[in-house]
Structure formats: C-alpha cells, structure tokens
Amino acid sequence: MHPVAYGEVRIPERLWHWLEALLLSERTLETKCFMLCEALELPGRVVFLVRELVPLSEEDYEVRSPSLVVTRPEFVHRLLERCYRENLSLLEAHSHPWAGHARFSETDHRSDREKFRATESLSPPFRHGTLVFGNDMSFEGHMWDWVSQQVVPIVRIAIVGVPYRLQYATPYAYRGYDAAVQRVYDRQVRALGAEGQAILAELTVALVGAGGLGSQIGQALAHLGFGQILWIDPDRLELTNLNRVVGATYAQAKRGVRKVKALAQRLNRLCPPDEPRRVVPIPEDVRTPELAPLLLGSDLIIGAVDSATVRQYLNLLAVCGLIPYLDAGVGLRAEYGRIHMGGGQVQVVVPSETACLTCVGNLVQASVEEQLTPEQRERSIRAGYIQGERIPNPQVVFLNGVVANLLVWEAVKLCTGCQQVHPYVYYDLIEQTTFPVDAPRDPNCYLCGDSPDSLLGTGIKGVQGFIEKRTARPIPTPRQSASKKEVANAE
Ligand SMILES: [Zn+2]
C-alpha cells in the first residue's frame, strides 16, 4: 500500500442528475446523500466509481438546520455494514445551499476528521470521503488516506455522459494556460474555444493500436493537444506497414523498431522542448494484466485494433471503469485490382449512456469468424464471406484516414461538447457517404445494462471476475455446438 495524494470521482450522468436534484431540492436546509462506490486503487490516487446513490428521508436525520446536518447513527451503521459486506467504499455528499463556490466549513473539517478516524479501524481497503456542494453544484472534497494518516483532497468529478464533463473542486478550478501554449493552439481555440482546448489538455487518452488507423488517430490527438497519450501496441514496424503507418520511416521499418516508439518520438517533437513528453509509448500487449490499472486510470480509451477479442477486452475495461471508449474499424474487399466493397465504422461507448460493443453485437460476426474450424473457414473464404488468413487483407491509407478522423471528430465532440455526438457512424467508401446508424443501448446487456448485477463501475474487480468466469466456463464454439448437434442426430 502506497500513500495516496488525491482522489477523484467518476459518476454516470443519470446519477449525477439525480444527485443534483436531491441536493438542490431544499434551498434553505442542508441536505445529504450517500454514494456507494467501487474504489479504484491506482498509483498515488483513488478513483471512486459511483455505483449507487442512497438518499435520506426526513427520519434519517438527527439534526437538520440551515448550516448543519447530522445523520442518525443507525442509518450510518446500516450503510457501513453494507459497504463491509459488498466490499464497497463510501462518499458522503451534503449541500451548502447558501454558497456559490462550495468550501468546507470549520465544522465540516472537524466532524469529517472524527468520522474518518472512526471508520479507519473498520476494514481497509474501505475508502471514506466527503463532498460538499454549493447551490451551483460547485464542490470541494476530501478523503482519508490511512497510509499517510492524512486528509487528502478529492480534486475532480468526471460526469460520464454525452458530452463527458470534468468538474474541478473549488480550490483546483481551471486557471487558464500560458501564452506559449495559447500561441500553438490559436487557430484551434478559434474553433473549440479556450475552455474546449483546456479540457483536451486535461485528458489522458489510452490509444490502443499503432497500425494504419492508430497512427493517424495518434497523430491527430497529438496535434489537438490532448494532455497525455498512452500509446499501446507491441508490434514492430515492417516494410509492408509503410503504405499506411503515418510517420514511420523506411529506416525504422528496416530495423524493425517498435511502432509506438517510432511514432511517439516524432510526435513528441510537437511540444516545446521543456514540456513533459505527451506521447508515452508502451510496446506491450494491452491485455498484459499489469496494464489494466493504467487503462482504468485514463479518461478515454481509443481502440484501433483488428482483433475482436482485444475490442471486447477494451469494451469490458471501459464499462467496468466508467470510461468512454471509442472504437474504429475498417474493411476492404478487392479482386483483380478492383475495389468492390469498402468502409468503416466508429462507435462511441459511454457506459450507461450509449450502447457498448456487446449491446450492438458488432462483435458477433468477428468472433464467429475467429472461432470457425479450418474447414468452415476455407468454405467461408471460398464463398467470399471472410478474408483468408494466408492472403493479407487489403489496406489503404485513404480509407484509414477518413475513418481515423471520423473517430477523432467524435472524440473532440464528446470531450468539448462543441457539437452533437453520433454514437455510431458508418462510412461507405464506394458510395462516398458517411451516416450515423441507430445503435440503441440494451438495458438488459450483461455488461452495461441497468441491472445491479451488471459490470458498470465495478472497477478492476469486475474485469478480473469477468475474465476468471470466462476462462472457467468457455463459451462453446460453433464447432462444439455443431458436433453436439451431430451427436444428437446420430443418437
Ligand atoms: Zn452493453
């Protein structure tokens, strides 16, 4: 266990609206609400993933006045028991209905210290924090760190919705950025506004994939000025990549340099020399368990990969970590120098708001293909349903460029709110058309659905639990189902 410097909160937008309605329902008396959370323990910080709101009724208050609110001990006991039983952490939120810029009062500081001391002995890893909200939902927050034995601040709340919003605690509110940076982004600020630009600079993006699509996405993210880009891909450059991996050189491909290292090195030259490197190359398989905290700690995950299983994994991380996930894919069919089918799609997954990949089921086809027997594969290839493995898929830079930038545009809209987000966009290369596709979220989805058993906001425990379950009980492949059927027929 390491000391924690600060805390953060991620809350689905619908819970945020409910919290707002509860706290602002009473304009003269202080109002309280509890939040049951999964605490994501990351290096140096804790992210509270809000799973459930627990409002108080009038009889749950012991004292309630314009400037004081005390909860009945029995109510708190019941909650703590539940936290203990279900391994959840607790955030308390109360309102200061008279305050524009919310700050803790002296009484708040005193009583919170006492509370934190009292709950510390209960059972680590129990995390306990409090938040105070003003009448405009501005807030200040703090939590107890049992390692340093100190109260540490909760600095921001990410409201996971469309658009995705970050709200900073009163003492950490945005103070603008310096003139040099202003100069670099001058033309862009004219499009996105200074606030929009500042939001991009605050965000850490995990970009998975550095191929034809990923290289163009990474390049655009770096030019846009995203705060940090964690770029994950284990592959080395090859000569056959040079037709589409933007930024790679012949010499690097000859030497077989790791893709992310080559691309990051070039894009980091966009920053002033004294600034910290913004593009961080991570030449590893994204499913390496050690990378999970890094991905769960980012604000946005972007997938530009061609494997259905990796896509599924990124979708799982996003749902468990309450992180928006943007996914892109392209496909091209050509024969004898004639392209007869081509296009791509971009999906924006905002957990609990828009459809996840499982809801849409666009993984179905791909995972079926991956599970085919060699004979089934051969038949499908002959019939033209899928591309043969021995014949590399056709790949062209212009198709990747369109789809990569469609994704980047959705990412910018999602983060800045400068335009309406389209959760699913399809591009047809032959018809030269781009159109949003209706992809409704499935409220019964076992990953992101509304049931309390869904994996929404379950953090690293959810990810691990899901993988363990999967490995213990593998889903029957078409071959197994077919052979069972054959056996049944034979009988
Ligand atoms: Zn879903």
Oligomer: single chain
Helical content class? 25-40%
* Major sheet: arrangement of strands: 13-12-11-14-15-16-17-18
SS element count, helices: 16
Give the termini distance in whole angstroms. Answer: 59 Å
CATH homologous superfamily identity of the largest domain: NAD(P)-binding Rossmann-like Domain
Sheet of most strands: 8 strands, mixed
| SS elements, strand count | 18
User: What structural class do helix, strand and pairing data support?
Assistant: alpha/beta
Average pLDDT, rounded to a whole number, is 87
Cα shape:
globular
- Which small-molecule species are bound to the chains here? zinc ion
Give the name of the CATH architecture of the largest domain.
3-Layer(aba) Sandwich
Short description:
With 491 residues, the chain is α/β, with parallel strands linked by helices.
Structure description:
- The protein contains 16 helices and 18 strands.
- It is an alpha/beta fold.
- The chain has 2 domains: 6-172, Cytidine Deaminase, domain 2 (3-Layer(aba) Sandwich), CATH 3.40.140; 187-472, NAD(P)-binding Rossmann-like Domain (Rossmann fold, 3-Layer(aba) Sandwich).
- The strands form 3 sheets. Strands 13-12-11-14-15-16-17-18 form an 8-stranded mixed beta sheet, with helices on both faces.
- α6 (212-224) crosses α14 (397-416) and α10 (308-321) packs across α12 (363-371).
- The protein is globular and about 80 Å long.
- Mean pLDDT is 87; it is low at 383-389 and 474-491.
- Bound molecules: zinc ion.
- Zinc ion is lined by residues 355-356, 358-359, 442, 445, 447-448.
- Zinc ion (ZN) is lined by residues 355-356, 358-359, 442, 445, 447-448.
